[in-house]
């Protein structure tokens, strides 16, 4: 084995001697030529196995079938366009296994396109990237056809069974533009992110609908129930009107917690940039209070200070107070998990990153493709339970003793 390795190394040294990087890995370099030679050698071997004899062997005479020249096929690959000579037989029965008939792209090329698409590159950017790096001309139709293969994966993922119980589920929506009937419309992409019993983040689904509304959220919750979710201990949501009622209709025992991040962000919309820092500091005194009573006192103090200037801020907090304060009943380790939807905010940041270059998506399916690929890529980093999960689950087991599976 060692002698064979030494021979291969010696051959490679001789092959690469004196060659520049461009001559080795360039568009018309050695790597491309080696790829062509290897593919053609394998195809010749396949033909030999098909016919049962080597080229020019006497036993092939009168066998009823024989080699009948070659056809040239251009394949797209990471090394650029590769012209391959494919052997033919006289009866036309030869079916290459390495390069099946009607194949126009080398293995791995489609994965390259999908990977670029998952990073948020537009069709035009993918075209330019492949041409610049590999000298390959790829049409928008081809890119769409390749990425459309993801749609079946999206459907399977979106209909997969879910766990019966999720201690925490974050529900949020982001807004994108999609072309419909020649017009650009704003649509909502509904996102459900669960924290499962072992503390891992799990994206439960993505839905594309009209502008965000409690009625559509009811459809989402019904689907989650149909896919096996029997209970959510805590649902973290934004301040959408009617949202708590939609949750109560499907999951009546679920505790609804408003996302403090959304509350603060919505409050600061009324404040000039110059004063935001001061207002944000006074708001922080509310949601970092030790108890619900202390939080209410902080809200009163905020109201006395700012109601003359921004009366709508304290009013919005009071109107939603019943869904603001649930997390005050929990110890710090659980508050960190539920009072701010950092988990889903990071997802929204990832989705925004891959969609910001697009003025408008051509179809709702194109939205689903990009979102699914982006989330699949992001979820590769969700390898560990969220911080302080053991302490949080222990507390859940006590508070929700008859609802947490042991």
What does this protein structure show overall?
The protein has 406 residues and is α/β, with parallel strands linked by helices. It has 2 domains: 18-98, no CATH class; 163-399. Helix content is 50%, strand content 17%. The chain contains 18 helices and 7 strands. It has helices at 2-16, 21-25, 30-51, 109-118, 123-134, 140-148, 150-158, 214-226, 243-250, 260-268, 273-287, 292-306, 311-319, 321-324, 332-338, 342-355, 364-379, 389-399, and strands spanning 67-77, 80-89, 165-180, 183-195, 201-209, 231-237, 255-258. The chain has a 5-stranded mixed sheet, sandwiched between helices. Strands 1-2 form a two-stranded antiparallel ribbon. Helix 11 (273-287) packs antiparallel against helix 12 (292-306), helix 12 (292-306) runs antiparallel to helix 13 and helix 16 (342-355) packs across helix 17 (364-379). The longest helix is centred in the N-terminal third of the chain and has 22 residues, at 30-51. The mean pLDDT is 78.
Please specify the SSE layout and strand pairing.
Layout: H1 2-16, H2 21-25, H3 30-51, E1 67-77, E2 80-89, H4 109-118, H5 123-134, H6 140-148, H7 150-158, E3 165-180, E4 183-195, E5 201-209, H8 214-226, E6 231-237, H9 243-250, E7 255-258, H10 260-268, H11 273-287, H12 292-306, H13 311-319, H14 321-324, H15 332-338, H16 342-355, H17 364-379, H18 389-399
Parallel strand pairs: 3-6, 6-7
Antiparallel strand pairs: 1-2, 3-4, 4-5
């Amino acid at each position: 084995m060692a002698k064979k390795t030494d021979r291969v190394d010696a051959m490679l040294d001789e092959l690469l001697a004196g060659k520049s990087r461009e001559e080795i890995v360039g568009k018309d370099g050695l790597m491309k030529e080696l790829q062509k030679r290897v593919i053609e050698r394998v195809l010749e071997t396949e033909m030999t196995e098909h016919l049962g004899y080597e080229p020019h062997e006497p036993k092939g005479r009168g066998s009823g079938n024989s080699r009948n020249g070659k056809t040239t096929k251009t394949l797209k690959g990471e090394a650029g366009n590769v012209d391959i000579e494919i052997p033919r037989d006289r009866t036309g029965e030869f079916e290459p296994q390495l390069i099946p008939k009607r194949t126009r792209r080398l293995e791995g090329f489609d994965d390259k396109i999908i990977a670029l698409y998952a990073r948020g590159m537009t069709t035009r950017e993918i075209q330019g990237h492949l041409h610049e790096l590999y000298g390959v001309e790829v049409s928008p139709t081809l890119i769409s056809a390749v990425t459309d293969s993801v749609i079946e994966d999206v459907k399977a993922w979106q209909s997969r069974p879910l766990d019966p119980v999720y201690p925490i589920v974050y529900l949020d929506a982001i807004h994108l533009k999609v072309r419909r009937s020649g017009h650009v419309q704003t649509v909502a992409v509904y996102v459900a992110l669960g924290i499962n019993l072992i503390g891992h983040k799990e994206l439960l689904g993505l839905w594309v609908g009209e502008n965000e509304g409690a009625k559509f959220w009811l459809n989402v919750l019904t689907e989650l129930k149909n896919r096996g979710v029997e209970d959510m201990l805590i649902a973290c949501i934004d301040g959408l009107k009617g949202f708590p009622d939609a949750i109560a209709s499907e999951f009546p025992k679920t505790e609804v917690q408003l996302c403090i991040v959304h509350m603060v962000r919505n409050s600061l919309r009324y404040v000039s940039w110059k004063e935001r820092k001061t207002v944000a500091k006074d708001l922080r005194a509310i949601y970092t209070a030790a108890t619900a009573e202390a939080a209410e006192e902080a809200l009163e103090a905020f109201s006395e200070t700012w109601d003359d200037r921004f009366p709508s801020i304290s009013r919005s907090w009071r109107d939603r107070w019943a869904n603001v304060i649930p997390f005050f009943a929990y110890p710090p380790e659980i508050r960190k998990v539920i009072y701010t939807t950092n988990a889903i905010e990071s997802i929204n940041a990832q989705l925004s990153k891959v969609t910001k270059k697009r003025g408008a998506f051509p179809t709702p399916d194109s939205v689903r493709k990009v979102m699914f690929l982006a989330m699949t890529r992001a979820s590769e980093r969700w390898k560990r339970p969220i911080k302080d999960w053991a302490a949080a689950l222990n507390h859940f087991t006590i508070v929700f003793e008859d609802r947490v599976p042991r």
